[in-house]
Design a protein that fits this description.
Fumarate Reductase Iron-sulfur Protein, Chain B, domain 2; alpha+beta; 9 helices; elongated; 5-stranded mixed sheet
Length: 187
């Protein structure tokens, strides 16, 4: 692939063709904040917290989401200037203006057993099965049974359902319960 040279906050950097401004900034160790960005997902630019300023040849500039804007040769980027900070602050204020104040995830809030589902999902995703088992056991009595009886109301409230389909929470809980070693009384 071709290398592209650009400047971010006065520092030159070379990146591969097709890389984003966010990737270029991170290559320099510049911490551009993000909320909606994840390397494994297509950029959605829904939060606009990653805004940076692109200076143009005619002396003007524009704000762009760094997570979705591809680097171009000769770009001059600013990430740590007052108007960028102000735009990021405005983006956050707009996001929070629609916030109802309940910071529990919908799946956790809806679960009749109050299982912290995001925590369980993170533990399984990280391969921390022992920790996931301990977490489920602390919240769910007889997890090996309730996982089969559960009507999965948490999946109806899952935020992922907006993007594609809800997480298969009930199946993950069953998976975790099956990784639990059977209880045997001490003899």
């Amino acid at each position: 692939m071709n290398k592209i040279a650009l400047t971010i906050d006065g520092r030159p950097v070379e990146v591969e063709s097709g890389e984003t401004l966010l990737a270029a900034a991170r290559k320099l160790g510049i911490d551009v904040p993000t909320l909606c960005h994840h390397e494994k997902c297509t950029p959605s630019t829904s939060c606009l917290v990653c805004l940076v300023k692109v200076k143009t040849d005619n002396g003007s500039s524009r704000l762009v989401p760094s997570c979705a804007t591809r680097a171009e040769p000769g770009m001059v980027i600013e990430s740590e200037v007052a108007d960028v900070f102000e735009a990021r602050r405005t983006a956050l204020e707009l996001l929070f203006s629609d916030h109802v104040g309940d910071c529990l995830s919908p799946c956790h809030r809806i679960c009749p057993l109050q299982l912290n589902i995001p925590r369980m999902l993170r533990q399984v995703d990280d391969g921390q099965f022992t920790e996931a088992v301990a977490h489920v056991r602390a919240s769910v009595p007889l997890a090996g049974i309730t996982g089969w009886l559960c009507s999965s109301p948490c999946e109806q409230g899952c935020r992922r359902g907006v993007q594609d389909s809800p997480a298969a929470i009930r199946e993950v809980e069953r998976f975790v319960a099956e990784h639990d070693s059977p209880w045997l009384p001490q003899v």
